Amino acid sequence: MTPAAGAATAPEASRGAAIEGRGIGKVFLARDGAVTALDDLSFRIAPGEFVSLIGPSGCGKSTLMLIAAGLIPASQGTILIDDVRLDRPLTDIGIVFQDHLLLDFRTALGNVLLQPQIRGTPLDAARPRALELLRRLGLEAAANRYPHQLSGGMRQRVSIARALIHEPSVLLMDEPFGALDAITRTQMRHDLELLWLETRKTVLFITHSIEEAIGLSDRVLVMSPGPGRIVDEIAVELPRPRPAHLGEYPSFVGHAQRIHDSFRRMGVIKF
């Protein structure tokens, strides 16, 4: 993302920054009245922690992510980055959306280098880092290909490399694998976990997939239907790196059942 004038930058001392929300509320004004997207929502993500947010469509997950990035203001409450109140867009951050948002006229490498180019970083210094990220994400041979020459999973890997090129301490991911097939999603989950284990960025990961949330996270936060609130918090203590087939762990089955039960109680799942 492009740094805004006067944008806030999180401290660089740690590999990941703490993110805290205190009493977050968000109300949108519409022609037919006010819509409350979030209501008195509080959470804390420790430095270097991987936390997933799971909930039904329309519960405010993406809204919360944009507030945590400083891109839209909360109607009430406060976001803190390393205990400092966030009141402007955060620049020490990488964001990955469901849509890869690559530029068709730039190669994979060119798309990754767009981030340092916008930030004014010398490209000669950024190029080795970009190539290393592409290599770690299995795209070394595709560096000079254009987006239309890449598969959906490859394009999303490029967008992850672009989000990480400037070594942010916070990574926000809004259903980044939602448009991919099941096999590609499983591989992407594995690749992302390995990259995170090396870098230990603080990650807030939004997903609709229970398996994905448990498979990636240190903790899973379960949200209610709108207005969104956090109704459960599940600590995931499975060994890392985690296998493709999580069902071999009894604790995985227990965590998945707990999330299903929460959704049934809230009427999100009716069977």
Question: Could you outline the blueprint of secondary structure elements for this entry?
Answer:
Layout: E1 19-30, E2 33-45, E3 50-54, H1 61-68, E4 76-81, E5 84-85, E6 93-96, H2 108-119, H3 123-136, H4 152-164, E7 170-174, H5 182-199, E8 202-207, H6 210-216, E9 219-223, E10 230-235, H7 250-265
Parallel strand pairs: 3-8, 3-9, 6-7, 7-8
Antiparallel strand pairs: 1-2, 1-4, 4-5, 9-10
CATH topology of the largest domain: Rossmann fold
How would a crystallographer describe the biggest sheet?
6 strands, mixed
Number of helices: 7
Estimate the strand proportion.
Answer: 15-25%
Helix content estimate: 25-40%
Order of helices and strands: EEEHEEEHHHEHEHEEH
Low-confidence runs of at least 5 consecutive residues: 1-14
Spatially, the strands of the biggest sheet line up as 6-7-8-3-9-10
Domains counted in the coordinates: how many? 2
* Coarse structural class: alpha/beta
Which second-level CATH architecture of the largest domain applies? 3-Layer(aba) Sandwich
CATH homology superfamily of the largest domain: P-loop containing nucleotide triphosphate hydrolases
- Distance between termini? 42 Å
What does this structure look like?
Helices cover 32% and strands 24% of the residues. It folds into two domains: 16-92 and 170-271, Rossmann fold (3-Layer(aba) Sandwich), CATH 3.40.50.300; 99-167, no CATH class. It is of the alpha/beta class. Mean pLDDT is 91; it is low at 1-14. It is globular and about 50 Å long. A six-stranded mixed beta sheet has the order 6-7-8-3-9-10, with helices on both faces.
